[in-house]
Amino acid sequence: MKIDLPAEPKPEHVSVVYDHREEPSQLDVSPLRMVRGTLDVGDYVLEAMPRYACIERKTATDFLACCGRERKRLDSQLERLKQFPARLLLVEMSWQMIEAGEWRDDVSPESARGTLLGAMEMGVPVMLLPSRELAGTYAARWLFIAARRRWRELYGFAKGLKEPST
Question: Can you give the pTM of this predicted structure?
Answer without folding.
Answer: 0.89
